[in-house]
Design brief:
493 residues; alpha/beta; six-stranded antiparallel sheet; 27 strands
């Protein structure tokens, strides 16, 4: 039986902000050190201490924005510790992540260099939990002021004459938890106070992001929008896909179909969470001036056996790829409100793009999804009418197919399709309303016969995309046969 979708190619429904494909690099485990930063004296090929292979891989997926230095780490980070000669920088205890010593060799200058090398926007999280208004104000001045001032002069002394462009600045992180255990009313007042001193210098205009809610905590969103919406440009939201419980999350690589089903079911909850938080935001901001910034999302499993529990190192299978793909489709379909998202995290932590082991580097199935889906960045969303068949398991059911579509500036149409059923293929007919002709159709698929398949340092290309041949043009439409547990991107020219 074929499922039917209708895509209105002559109608657009918002722009898919490229920043939905953003990333997050925290001082956590081996994300920064070993993952990004190896130091200038390392035998691993690098540019001013930053790994060349990692930069090359991230440039390929067109990373648009990178969030740093946290996360929970942001609210114990004091930026002055990370500037000046590296041997003179303060060493500190990373109390959140593994109790290791942070030497601060990767600081503001190194991060901004990384962003320049990647061609992406920096998104910096300031310290509200243990910092001061003055500290935050002086950091912004240090980075962005071009005139005569103590902070601008200090930047010049440290080797950077011209200021950087810093568009995105977060005023605190998870201040309802690790960032200070604050009540929403208290944080709303603190945000109003701190953001006053996050100033625009010269032509640098900062997009101020307030610490938002997590999961189903709608009260926080209500209070922040009511008390502080007019002072913010964006409001963050965090949601992690956890198969089990916080105490026993489950294995990243050894799981049953029950756990496959539960993981995808929980990933799909992102749609409900965004919808309900967006409804509250609409109440106070009907023009959607304030962007929803989903700056932490992704799968979270138990760490790999034998690794530091505080380093959050996990492998990445086809299951993670499906979670990424269906989540990105959800973001596309909420693009009028969701203006940025940052998957957690870029390298060696949680649902990473890249894993490293010494000089070795591999990319993950999630990386391949971001590579396949990059065609949607800044494209116009096309409305899709579709009611999916269901994937049933143990008496429960969820939609079998996830879909989104867009048209880019060159007129190409891209359709993203996910079949989350691990046993059954999905037959799909797609009508393309308003399309004069379909001259060329190509496709890419990411799939495998084994749901546990993942890339290793011994087999770095065990799972990678391939050309998709299960689609045919039929007049003003197409028929597609999606393999079980697959991600497909179609291009129509």
């Amino acid at each position: 039986m074929s499922q039917k979708a209708i895509i209105n190619t002559d109608i657009t429904a918002g722009i898919i902000n490229k920043n939905i494909y953003g990333h997050f690099a925290e001082h956590l485990g081996r994300c920064i050190y070993e993952g990004i930063w190896v130091g200038e004296d390392s035998p691993i090929p690098n540019t001013q201490g930053i790994r060349n292979d990692v930069v090359q891989a991230l440039k390929k997926i067109q990373i648009p924005v990178l969030r740093w230095p946290g996360g929970c780490f942001a609210d114990e980070y004091h930026w002055r510790d990370g500037i000046g000669p590296r041997l003179n920088r303060k060493r500190m205890l990373n109390t959140h992540w593994g109790g290791v010593i942070e030497n601060n060799h990767f600081g503001t200058h190194e991060f901004m260099l990384l962003c320049e090398m990647l061609g992406c926007e920096p998104y910096i999280n300031g310290n509200v939990g243990s910092g001061t208004v003055q500290e935050m104000q002086e950091w912004v001045e240090y980075m962005t002021f071009d005139g005569e001032s103590p902070m601008a002069n200090l930047r010049r002394e440290n080797g950077r004459h011209t200021p950087w462009n810093v568009k995105y600045f977060g005023v605190g992180n998870e201040n309802w938890g690790c960032g200070g255990n604050m009540r929403p009313e208290y944080y709303a007042d603190e945000f109003r106070r701190y953001q006053t001193y996050v100033r625009n210098y010269g032509d640098n205009k900062i997009y101020k992001i307030a610490c938002g809610s997590h999961d189903h905590n709608y009260e926080w969103t209500e209070v922040l929008m009511r008390e502080a919406a007019r002072f913010m440009n964006g409001l963050s939201l965090h949601y992690y896909t956890i198969t089990g419980t916080w105490q026993h999350k489950g294995s990243a690589t050894e799981f049953t179909e029950d756990e496959w089903f539960t993981t995808i079911k929980k990933a799909l909850v992102m749609d409900e969470i965004i919808s309900k938080h967006a409804t509250i935001m609409d109440k106070y901001d009907p023009d959607k001036r304030v962007g929803m910034i989903v700056d932490e999302w992704g799968t979270w499993f138990d760490v790999e056996p034998g690794t530091n529990p505080g380093f959050l190192y996990q492998q990445n299978t086809l299951r993670d790829a499906l979670v990424a793909a269906v989540t990105l489709n959800i973001f596309h379909n909420h693009c009028e409100r969701v203006q940025m998202a940052n998957i957690a995290q870029t390298i060696n932590v949680l649902q990473a793009m890249i894993l490293t082991e010494g000089e070795k580097m591999i990319v993950t199935p999630t990386y391949h999804v971001f590579d396949m889906y990059k065609v949607h960045q800044d494209a116009a969303r096309l409305p899709v009418e579709f009611s999916s068949d269901t994937y049933e398991h143990n008496g429960e059911c969820i939609p079998q197919v996830s879909i989104s579509a867009s048209r880019n500036a060159q007129g190409q149409i891209h359709i993203s399709l996910c079949n989350i059923d691990p046993k059954s293929e999905a037959n799909l007919s797609i009508e393309l309303h308003g399309l004069e002709k379909t001259a060329k159709l190509t496709g890419t698929v990411l799939t495998a016969a084994d749901m546990h398949l993942h890339n290793t340092f011994e087999q770095p290309e065990a799972l990678k995309p391939a050309d998709f041949h299960g689609v045919t043009l039929m007049g003003q439409g197409l028929n597609a046969k999606l393999p079980p547990m697959s991600v497909v991107v179609l291009t129509i020219e």
